[in-house]
């Protein structure tokens, strides 16, 4: 029963962390202080979930270098996923910014995921995977840039969430 509760808590912490990270990243241009705080809290939650998962659930005894690797790759993974998630959610609020965020987030999250999970790949597989993710990111960037520049789309920065003053 304890295992179910622990695993549930890790998922809650992961998803709350990613949600806050994605909001912080994509909305930062609108209020740097507020969204930086949200971003830092989100990254902290995701990192806490990663550490809890490795130490408490998986009973992994880590060396100092493994701890640094876990922290670094968990943070870059959260940032990358947050860039994608926040970019998708808030494209209309900051379309040009998002046209960079989503492709960069794709590359950052993929590389972080591969390294964090310590996949053993031969050189040819690594080259194919990394080339493939860069090609996907370029396609995303070109597609998003075309959407931003399309006259058929209303892409006034600020979007829907800023129309209702609070």
Structure description:
The structure is a single chain. This protein is mainly alpha-helical and 166 residues long. It has one domain (2-162). The protein contains five helices and no strands. Helix 1 packs across helix 3 (64-89), helix 3 packs antiparallel against helix 4 and helix 4 runs antiparallel to helix 5 (123-149). The radius of gyration is 18 Å and the shape is globular. It starts with a helix and ends in a 17-residue tail after the last helix. The model has no long low-confidence stretch (mean pLDDT 90).
Topology:
Elements: H1 2-27, H2 32-57, H3 64-89, H4 95-116, H5 123-149
Transmembrane segments: 9-30, 36-56, 68-91, 97-115, 127-148
Keywords: Membrane, Transmembrane, Transmembrane helix
N- and C-termini, Cα separation: 44 Å
Average pLDDT value?
A: 90
Major sheet size, sense and barrel closure = none
Percentage of residues in DSSP E strands: under 5%
Helical content band: over 70%
Rg over C-alpha atoms, rounded to the nearest angstrom: 18 Å
Structural class: mainly alpha
